[in-house]
Amino acid sequence: MAGEGWGGHSGRIVIVGASLAGLRAAETLRAEGFGGSLTVVGDEPHPPYDRPPLSKQVLLGRVRAADAGLPRRRAVDARWKLGVRASGLDPVEKRVLLADGEHLPFDRLLIATGTRARPWPQSDEARLDGVLTLRTLDDAARLAERLDAGPRRVLVIGAGFTGSEIASACRERGLAVTVAERGPAPLVGALGGTLGAFAAKLQRAHGVDLRCGVTVTALRGSGGRLTGADLSDGTRIDAEVAVVALGAVRNTEWLAGSGLAAGPRGVACDAGCRAFNMYGIVTDDVFVAGDVARFPHPLFEYQMLSLEHWGNAVAQAEVAAHNMVSPGPRRRPHLTVPAFWSSQFGLNIKSVGVPTFSDQVVIAQGSLKEGRLVAVYGYRGRVTAAVSVNRAKWLEHYRTLIESAAPFPPPAGAADRPESPVPVPSDVPDPKVLSHGPTVALTGHLPDRRLAVVVRQNG
């Protein structure tokens, strides 16, 4: 049997996913003394690379896509299977099945398959030359090349963080850009109504042709090349490049039939990164980390969170790797407060906590008018998140308030002269009304929409 002889620091570990979480987990395993066989599987041909620069420096031509590799913290003695997709998991025989026909036996498995860009739903339109997504190294190289060619107009479909960063890069290059967003404002799915309205003004002030409350009903082409798009309000856009920024799809299809609690929202695990099976029973040999994981967090009512955040991938990978080689009493939980950052239109936006887990928001420092501020979010009278715009040095203070469940709204400090100290509803929209997805998915209930479904079974 594949699991015989497992001793924590020997045996066979397989990591499926050769990106940030997979690399940091492999490094942590070796740092913690794992001396057994280690295999890392990745569906892309490239060694692990950094994704945040792809929508920022790479699109601005400051960094080549090929130079976005991740620095190695330490040597990792591993077998790298790159450019090969995992096609299945046999949990009984404890084997990962690969698309090239190889079977990889394991004693411990880490699932770190992340996400991929959600494609344009009409496949014939998606194949038009000029229709692109942005998720991978190759995607970024292709898009940068198109922007270098100086298209007359770029259409960005979706105004989440990726879509907004692409629009920002286009304007910085002097390119005309139209952004189409189904929801009421950019970034509203991640930051709520107040900062969504701020982001809309910001984009328009920088010359973005921002269209909210509309969908792209069709992409048009001629001779196999994109020429433009039709919008739901009856208008037409002429564009040579369209970037589809409709959020992410979690890479879980290869786990169909594995018996794990895996689906479109990710792979469910406990706070120690151990995967649940489909009956809610925790496994002891399969672990999960990074964007593909759904995990409970005590600060957010033990809701299952899915995070598309760089810092979360690193922290969760380190916890998962530690727990894979540690006996039960020495295992630790993944309790990091979520954090992310974005650079767009000359502003540095940073967040701690979960802004969507809120019912109210207050501008605690600075003002929307001056574009330097800290917005603090609360739920049922306690602080749950903070977002800074060009004022990041204060976030550590708010992280402490979140971790200690401090009362909301927070008391004003002597240096604070907030423009509007009165909390207002945070206006977090239902994700169904957005074309961009939130970077934090509360995969249980939304705080202001409590709904219980009771299924009665006869017999």
List the helices and strands and how they pair.
Layout: E1 12-16, H1 20-31, E2 37-42, E3 79-82, E4 86-90, E5 95-98, E6 103-105, E7 108-111, E8 115-117, H2 123-126, E9 131-133, H3 137-148, E10 154-157, H4 161-172, E11 177-181, H5 188-205, E12 209-212, E13 216-222, E14 225-231, E15 236-238, E16 241-244, E17 248-250, E18 262-263, E19 266-268, E20 274-276, E21 282-288, E22 293-297, E23 303-307, H6 310-324, E24 339-344, E25 347-353, E26 360-367, E27 372-379, E28 382-389, H7 395-403, E29 424-425, E30 440-442
Helix pairs in contact: 1-6
InterPro entries: FAD-oxidoreductase/Apoptosis (IPR050446), FAD/NAD-bd_sf (IPR036188), FAD/NAD-binding_dom (IPR023753), FAD/NAD-linked_Rdtase_dimer_sf (IPR016156), Reductase_C (IPR028202)
Protein name: NAD(P)/FAD-dependent oxidoreductase
Organism: Streptomyces celluloflavus
Descriptive account of the structure:
Helix content is 18%, strand content 31%. The strands form seven sheets. The chain has a six-stranded mixed β-sheet with strand order 3-2-1-7-21-20, covered by helices on one side. It has a six-stranded antiparallel β-sheet with strand order 24-25-28-27-26-29, with helices on both faces. The protein has a five-stranded parallel β-sheet with strand order 9-16-10-11-12, with helices on one face. α5 links the parallel β11 and β12. Keywords: FAD, Flavoprotein, Oxidoreductase.
